[in-house]
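Board notes (copied after class):
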Amino acid sequence: MLDWNQPAIDFYQSIGALPQSEWVRYRLDGDALLKFAE
């Protein structure tokens, strides 16, 4: 879920869920995406 979705965060915390902060997201676009495609 997105970090701004406080109602969802509150729900999952209320049932004892823990965040997985070890995940890192990356995005490729523009020149980085072109370089990757080569």
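Comment from the instructor: The mean pLDDT is 95. The first helix runs from residue 6 to 14.
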